[in-house]
Design goal:
By secondary structure, the chain is an alpha+beta fold. Helices cover 38% and strands 16% of the residues. The structure holds dinuclear copper ion.
Length: 400
């Protein structure tokens, strides 16, 4: 570098040349100093931004504030491992920094410091020490893995979870969770998993299967999702072609937010969901209501919406029942979210839990052009008229 600078300084600028003269050594040093300072500031600002980015006034997805025994088990492992890792970091980095300063090159020091290569006792020491640390971390880690993988108790609530593009499909598989109409299919919800408080929930996670028109190939088999409710449990992958399991439990009634934690395509970030834990009494009432078929509205507008929903839209635009289910009607396809109790007060959100079910304007926007609010969603744009949209909203919000 220095040689380059010297050569530049030695260069003479030919007379009449339009090239500016080469900067002097002093100017170069100043430029280098400015660049270094700018980089330092940029790094500091970036670091601070990242740090502040971790702040949230109401963090609902905090793994460090577990709300159930499985999440607590994970925290009980995380905290000691974190402190062990912190101690190792401080020790190792501390020694590196100390050595770098203590033995740095200085004017007048032209010999290498004493070399420790080949010091057998030291080398054995710093091989065994990390091995012991790792063994110390491994024992509780493996114990926790076994603990979390244990069989669920007999009275666990069994739910099959399907990762769809991009929403979550929940089917309640227990005998006492069958609907009272038709052939008694399992209760099914979308975007919101409803559970009783203080009871183990055993989830079977399967890769998507939006078998549109009975054709599995038209579905979403080849995408991997990850099911994650940070306050209640760890993450579990949702794989095409296999079934994974995870246990969760909420100690208290409440709403726990979850989301897909594996990049799965365009709307991965909007593949959210909620777990709603109810008191035993509320749970029983919810189950009773879920067993009923979808309501038949008496209101004229909602009736018109029901006719639209169950029939073919004029002009060959298609029909809602190609993909959706409303229990007790002809709508029975499982390719898209279950709508039987769409507006039940426990089901606060729709379309990957991004909008409140109460929000009529959001619902209208969704029906008008799903792609405009959630690009890439499989819900087609049927070019509904305002009148049709009003009627459908009236019908959907009557499904309580
Ligand atoms: Cu599903 Cu990310």
């Amino acid at each position: 570098m220095r040689r380059q600078v010297a050569r530049d300084l030695g260069d003479t600028v030919p007379a009449g040349s339009s090239n500016p003269p080469s900067p002097s050594l002093k100017e170069r040093r100043e430029t280098e100093g400015t660049v270094r300072k700018t980089l330092l500031w940029a790094t500091a600002v970036l670091g601070l931004a990242l740090l502040l980015g971790a702040c949230a006034p109401n963090a609902t997805q905090d793994t460090l504030q577990p709300k159930g025994p499985y999440a607590q088990t994970l925290k009980d492992l995380f905290v000691p491992v974190f402190w062990v890792a912190t101690a190792v970091f401080i020790l190792v980095e501390g020694i590196i920094v100390w050595i770098a300063i203590r033995y740095r090159h200085r004017k007048g020091r032209d010999r290498l410091p004493a070399q420790t290569h080949g010091n057998t006792s030291r080398e054995i020491g710093w091989t065994i020490a990390p091995a012991l640390v790792l063994a110390g971390v491994m024992i509780p880690t493996i114990a926790t893995i076994w603990d979390l993988a244990r069989k669920p108790p007999d009275d666990a609530l069994n739910v099959t979870v399907k990762g769809q593009q991009w929403w979550w499909d929940f089917e309640y598989m227990d005998e006492d969770m069958r609907t009272s109409y038709g052939d008694g299919k399992p209760i099914r919800t979308a975007d919101v998993l409803v559970i009783p408080e203080d009871r183990v929930v055993y989830l079977s996670l399967v890769g998507g299967g939006g078998d549109v028109g009975g054709d599995p190939a038209a579905g979403d088999y080849m995408v991997i999702h990850s099911f994650w409710v940070p306050e209640l449990a760890g993450k579990q992958d949702v794989m095409p072609g296999r079934t994974n399991h995870i246990l969760l439990q909420a100690d208290r009634p409440g709403v726990y937010t979850g989301q897909c934690a594996e990049f799965c395509g365009l709307q991965h970030g909007r593949m959210k969901f909620r777990v709603v834990a109810l008191t035993q009494q509320d749970w029983e009432a919810w189950v009773e209501n879920q067993k009923r078929p979808g309501a038949t509205p008496s209101d004229a507008l909602a009736r018109r919406g029901m006719d639209l929903f169950l029939g073919q839209l004029s002009g060959g635009r298609g029909s809602c029942i190609e993909c959706h289910t409303v229990g007790g009607t002809d709508a029975a396809s499982k390719a898209a979210p279950e709508l039987t109790h769409f507006a039940d007060p426990t089901h606060e959100c729709f379309a990957g839990c991004n909008w409140d079910t109460e929000d009529r304007e959001a619902l209208k926007a969704w029906l008008r052009n799903p792609d405009a609010v959630k690009l890439g969603a499989k819900m087609p744009n049927y070019h509904l008229t305002d009148e049709e949209i009003d009627a459908l909203v009236a019908y959907l919000t009557s499904l309580r």
